[in-house]
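Self-study notes.
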Amino acid sequence: MNNIHRKRTWSSQTQLGDYFGISAKKVGSILNHHGLRHGRRATNQAIQSGWAMLTPLRDGTPHYLWNSEKVVGLIGQHYVLLDEVDYWVQLIQKRFRGFNRLLRMGKPDEAHKLPIFDDLPNSLYHEVMAKISQQQEAA
């Protein structure tokens, strides 16, 4: 069982999607479907009942974090939580795609600042890398 979501009390839609291997947009659709979000904003009810928290960006743009435990339970009604190895495999692959995108955009300095492996637990490193290698060989 993947307990990675329990390390964060509050998560972004992107982080929540990573636990299941789905997009932030898909997470938003689920939140909308359950009346916790309307458009791109958390509902007042979601905020008042502890499902969401408003955390504006530096420029004042509204941004919401979501209660990890509650929302993971909700998404789990629709999708299967990734095991810890698969979570890290998809997260590192996603980070590599971002790295390559920045290189293609001619931004190597930004690309090399990305924390691709920084938070990968040492105990999972070999298993995660082996699975990534297997997937690349199969492709």
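Second protein, same conventions, sequence then structure:
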Amino acid sequence: MKEKVYIAGAYRSKHLIGIIYNIYKARKVGMKLASLGKWVFVPHLAWALFDGIQPDWFWLECGKEMVRYCDTIYMLKKWYYSKGAIEELKLARELNKKVVFEEDFYEFIPEIKWSNAIWT
């Protein structure tokens, strides 16, 4: 079975453009991992711009449920600015999930070659 990877990082921002940028960053990593055969869950995309439909805690709980399902949590750069990502990491560690930080990407995927990565 394929490794299931949850992408964790900041979603919220003071401005809409900041939210869109955070979605873009998470999508870019998700595409990179999917191109390498990983099954990825990108909550930034799953609930993109659902703001206001439910309170923030609702979406954070949805994300934590997906962390339970996945094998690995992938922490985007600057994850520590996100209350949700901090909670997701805490849960992943409690559940003994594999934790990967974006800074360690090439250790996570040792078979990657520079030529076959998606960079845009």
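Instructor comment on the second fold: Confidence is low (pLDDT under 50) at residues 113-120.
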